[in-house]
Amino acid sequence: MPILEKLAQPSQARHWTDSIPLEYHYTAGVAGEEFRRELRDNGRFLVSKCSKCKNTYIPARMYCPDCFIEMKDQFPIDMPGYVYSFTSVNRNRSGSDTDSPIMVCLVKFEGVKGGIVHLINMDDPNRVSIGMKVTPSLRNQSERTGAITDIIAFIPISTGPSKVTSGEGKAKTQDAEAGKIQARSLLHSIEESGYPIEVDEMTISSLRSKIGKGELLTREEDRLLRGLGDKAREWRKAVKSSSETEPDDTLSG
Ligand SMILES: [Zn+2]
């Protein structure tokens, strides 16, 4: 049938099957990329603050949805989130039943608009409650790619105001467990950063041994570890920015 031939009868129509290769690229946008970079490099959530209405948004975004102005103030937050809502999913993407229910939650942060939808990891899904405080459990830094799956899941650090079944003992154990996980991941990122730890070798080795044995850090040790984490982070940033500027210097010099 020539291409311009008109059909007089619907029955004259023919069809054939083939495929057209299509590729999609989704960009996270300027602020979205910053958010992902901060998550990948420092394991923290980046937020944007509006200079006019003073609202803060997670994930970081470029424009304030209320004031329509650019938000130039971006900073990472370092606080636990809380379960704003949750549901359990019993089927996977292909529609077949999962072995056990998968808990999904919307996590919000005090004083911050927006939130993050992700998995919540609990031994007993019946104990998830609104308001429960959670912290992200992240992949090791070397495995992070800047995807939202760099977060393995959120894990509870204590039960929130609406706790029903969990006793105080259980909540304390969860706190301790979350603390140990955080300490382990922080120590790992310090060791990976290349930060010269010689000066703090005594502190580091005592922390390493406690964390290795799965012991809980004291408040003072926790403070030391966090301090070292900050130093390592600064170190990584400095190394990165000097490696970025070096080629230019060489050319101009
Ligand atoms: Zn605003």
Tell me what you see in this structure.
- 34% of the residues lie in helices and 22% in strands.
- With 253 residues, it is α+β, with helices and mostly antiparallel strands.
- The protein folds into three domains: 27-77, no CATH class; 79-166; 167-236, no CATH class.
- The strands form two sheets. Strands 7-5-4-8-9 form a five-stranded antiparallel sheet, covered by helices on one side.
- Strand 4 and strand 5 (97-108) form a beta hairpin.
- Helix 2 crosses helix 3 (201-212) and helix 2 (168-192) packs parallel to helix 4 (219-252).
- The radius of gyration is 25 Å and the shape is extended.
- The model is unreliable at 160-168 and 247-253 (pLDDT under 50).
- It binds zinc ion.
- The site of zinc ion has 7 residues, from loops.
